[in-house]
Amino acid sequence: MGIGSVQEVLPPVLDSTSAPPSLFDGTTRMYISYTCPYSQRLWITRNCKGLQDKIELVPINLQNRPTWYKEKVYPENKWNSFLQAPSLEHNNQVRGESLELMKYLDSHFEGGPSLFPADDPAKREFAEELLSYTDTFNKTVFASFKEDAEKEVGAALDHLETSLSKFDDGPFFLGQFSLVDIAYAPFIERFRPFILEVKKYDITTGRPKLAGWIEEMNKIEAYKQTQRDPQELVEIYKKRFLVAPLATH
């Protein structure tokens, strides 16, 4: 799928020694971490809309982040050494929360296909349900990394499998590719290899719709441009969940 096929050279990561950009100068900026799933949601949406030339990426070093980000850009930022709640600098305002920012990009910027089913009430309602469920899904899987919760994780994954069967006009959650797929993709990208290595369990076993969805997602150029090496993600999760105390977002 040729969505977001524009290639770009990624800017270097900024740390505590880096000078801030010229804030509130009319430039639209997206503050992210290259390794954070919440940031990746926004990054994928930007790419799908073909907004690489309109929205500048500002990647932040999570282990050594610049103080100016919290002090001058986004004081409300929620973060730890593994997560960077993304933010968007646009029209001299800074906005946060990844799900809301995805919708904001889709509705406030021209370019690329619409990623939300505005003209289909049934799909729109189901989209909202699935977007609301992302937090429950993620927390269920995260909790299983620290405790024996295979039954709960299986039920959460089965819910995704069932959801992928609701519409038959394509392999995605709403049939056609949408913000819902973008919301789940960064987490599935991390959960699958981590669970496979640590728990010796493939989350797609017995879930052909989910397996097909992952295959189709991996064909989308706008998403592929944001992906990290699976082993890198596994090592990050090992440090977070098998060594450090459970972090919250």
UniProtKB/TrEMBL annotation:
<dbReference type="InterPro" id="IPR004045">
    <property type="entry name" value="Glutathione_S-Trfase_N"/>
</dbReference>
<feature type="domain" description="GST C-terminal">
    <location>
        <begin position="91"/>
        <end position="246"/>
    </location>
</feature>
<protein>
    <submittedName>
        <fullName>Glutathione S-transferase L3-like isoform X1</fullName>
    </submittedName>
</protein>
<dbReference type="Pfam" id="PF13410">
    <property type="entry name" value="GST_C_2"/>
</dbReference>
<dbReference type="InterPro" id="IPR044629">
    <property type="entry name" value="GSTL1/2/3"/>
</dbReference>
<dbReference type="InterPro" id="IPR036282">
    <property type="entry name" value="Glutathione-S-Trfase_C_sf"/>
</dbReference>
<dbReference type="InterPro" id="IPR010987">
    <property type="entry name" value="Glutathione-S-Trfase_C-like"/>
</dbReference>
<dbReference type="GO" id="GO:0004364">
    <property type="term" value="F:glutathione transferase activity"/>
</dbReference>
<dbReference type="InterPro" id="IPR036249">
    <property type="entry name" value="Thioredoxin-like_sf"/>
</dbReference>
<feature type="domain" description="GST N-terminal">
    <location>
        <begin position="26"/>
        <end position="113"/>
    </location>
</feature>
<dbReference type="Pfam" id="PF13417">
    <property type="entry name" value="GST_N_3"/>
</dbReference>
